[in-house]
Amino acid sequence: MAKKKPKYVYFFGSGEADGTSQMKDILGGKGANLAEMTSIGLPVPPGFTISTEACAYYSANKETYPEGMREEVLENLAKLERLMGAKLGDSENPLLVSVRSGAASSMPGMMDTILNLGLTPTSVQALIAKTNNARFAWDSYRRFIQMFGDVVMGVPHHEFERALQDVKDSVGKSLDTDLSSENLQEVIVRYERIYKRFTGESFPTDPIDQLFKATNAVFHSWNNERAKKYRQMNDIRGLLGTAVNIQSMVYGNMGDTSGTGVAFTRDPSTGENKFYGEYLMNAQGEDVVAGIRTPKTIETLRDVNPEVYQQLVDIRSILENHYHDMQDVEFTIQEGKLYMLQTRNGKRTIFSWLKTQVDMVNEGLITKEIAVSRVPSGEFGKLFAPVLDTKSIRDQGLEEVTRGLNASPGGASGQIYFTAAKAEEMAAEGKDVILVRSETSPEDIGGMAVAKGVVTSRGGMTSHAAVVARGMGCPCVSGAGELHINETKKTLEVNGHRLSEGDYMSIDGFTGAIYATKIPVRSSEIVQVLNGNMKESESSIFQNYKIFMGYVNELKTLGVYANADSPNDTKMAVALGAEGIGLCRTEHMFFGGNRIMSIRKMILANNVVEREKALAELLPMQRGDFEAIFIELHGRPATVRLLDPPLHEFLPNDHTSRHELALQMGITVEEVAQKSSSLHEFNPMLGFRGCRLAIIYPEILRMQVRAIIEAAINVKRKGILVHPEIMIPLVGNYKEFVFCKKVALEVIEKIFEEQGMHVEYKIGTMIEVPRAAITADEIAKEAEFFSFGTNDLTQMACGFSRDDAASFLGPYVNDIDKQFYDYDPFATIDIDGVGKLVDMASKLGRSTNPNIKLGICGEHGGDPKSIAFFNQVGLNYVSCSPFRVPIARLAAAQAALIAKDSKK
Prior knowledge:
By secondary structure, the chain is α/β, with parallel strands linked by helices. The chain has four domains: 54-248, ATP-grasp fold, A domain (Dna Ligase, domain 1), CATH 3.30.1490.20; 259-345, D-amino Acid Aminotransferase, Chain A, domain 1, CATH 3.30.470; 385-522, Phosphohistidine domain (Glucose Oxidase, domain 1); 556-589 and 606-644 and 691-903, TIM Barrel. The protein is built from 35 helices and 34 strands. It has an eight-stranded mixed beta sheet. It has an eight-stranded parallel beta barrel with strand order 27-28-29-30-31-32-33-34, surrounded by six helices. A six-stranded antiparallel beta sheet has the order 2-1-3-8-6-7, sandwiched between helices. Strand 22 (491-494) and strand 23 form a beta hairpin.
């Protein structure tokens, strides 16, 4: 039986399509949705898609095509020509096409597009005769030369822009649309000279040559620097490449009855259920998204062409009912007729994600499960991002210097810089940066990634700056036309104010306001409600959050605890949904006031009697802290880690501080220095810390256990449930645990006898030493819980110091040619290494103690990808910092949905 010939090209047109929206991996998002829109009867210009498989072959085989692909392209081109009744580059009835990229995951602006392909000196004359519109034809030709030269042949974009500006200046025109046919022909002459100067050849006049060179350029753009950086920043992995969409051109630049636009079926900033978008008349698509002209809002189209506006409104409903999600669409109006060029699931802020999904559940469009699965858990923390302090603005009488478009919500304040490179440099020095540009381009992605906020003087709500900033959750004000930016002098002027590089600016991405000063930022609405500073009824954001987290709680199976060391942190963690404390670091309670002096007395003591005297001072302090924490928990469990860090961390390390300590303690500076020297370790993270402190100085353990249990009894007497869990840190040998547990039990039994009251408690350990993971079955015979300390476990398993690894770990993760680790192992669990230790220890522990409680309290407890792994391993809970609790809860629910689907 003959082997089936591979298919690389898929046609769509006249209500029929070879592909569907389920074929995104092969057709890319754009190609799949063009096919789908065609199939459901929307007005889509016909065309064909070259698959991502062809791109993968091209990239892997020295930029050559797979066998048969060229012939398939020509066959489908002939089919398109027959359907359109026109021929590519024809001298009488020319067909023009667009050539666009489209990967399976949306990457707006990162890869390349070529419009008006097929124009030549011959076909442009035919286009003039066909349309009786010379200006339109010449405008299309100059656009094609510029895009082809820039994208395909690498001619510097600014060379074309300079030539265009020179012609506008010479005839006294400010806008491209003001240029006449004659002016445009002069632009073309200059463009052709520039093209030849940079490429060494004349502009191609063979339309088939143009087509395949453009296809190559789109394939090649899959691996350009900005596309690779975008995929890395957005964690887009495992894709074959980009598809190439070749589609018959429709023209928005044919005069005042033509236009182009971008719209969202709901507001991408707030999620409000209203049609939202922008358009320009007498323009092509790139004019809107590039920010060269400031567009009009979609509502005004009702006055320009009510029939087309109503058709768009109807299509809005069709698309949402078909895709069950907010859509981002591109359209063109050619001489009063509407064409749909793209639809995709819209990129939006986390505020919009929250509202759209809650609204769609209420509307019956989607289920709670779908809503929870969609909201990006990695973005969820931005709900708690700060905003500009309006009280400070009011009290100081501050006035905005100008206002632009509120392109991406959030408040930001920082020092202004005018290039992405400078922004990256200053951010690396720890400065808060506001990136200010006339308009951003894909090359600015690095600067935008580190900026606290982005400001542009040109461009609309769907410009590059707006779309990318919204996706990043970065506040953005775009189209602030009163800003006069001089990037050469590194200054801007606006309404009598002059700002230089490094001066402060504050922006309000909710309103579009810009202030020429530094303004404090304050908590988000959700945090204000949780803190009691705003009524729940006053915040629609909080109301949507509360409803959505109700869905989350119905679906998740993994517990989510918080790492908290104070009553205030505990209170906020509980308000954010924490089900307990997974890590209370007692050493954090020793700093400040008399406490640090008492701990230093204990360290500097020369004998047990002196140590116990100092510890007696600490006992009531610790007990009081635990009581306050237990009260805030309202019966939720609290895992309290006994003293863990090496003792030298509590001692001063400079002469002045040592002298002050010596005076306070009535000893000599030499004695302080001698003690510090005796505690010095070459590698303290592997030295005298954790359970080793309790073994050598059991009196420390006794004091802390007494503080925990006495606090629990005191709280229980108030009628509040309490569940303390005592964690013995850094155990590597089960005998260490047995020793410490025995001492703890003796203290606990003595307290119960003294107080005449018992409380429930657990004693367990932190698994952070690889040997503990390997011998977990032995430890579990005595331990009631394991809490994986994946920070130290990663350090010891990988041999990386978290404090010192930055010098090489960046290239290990980010260099695509190396990439020894998929992710920073301190941010996302190293599944193949450290993850195996966690899995092994869990299974070993349960083999000897089936009821053992298993959790994780390292930084990985708040990382969504890590949480998916911990859910798969079968841990009982994860623990993370308070403000990461909602992220962890959402990630846990999404992990449960994935597990449920995998069982099906």
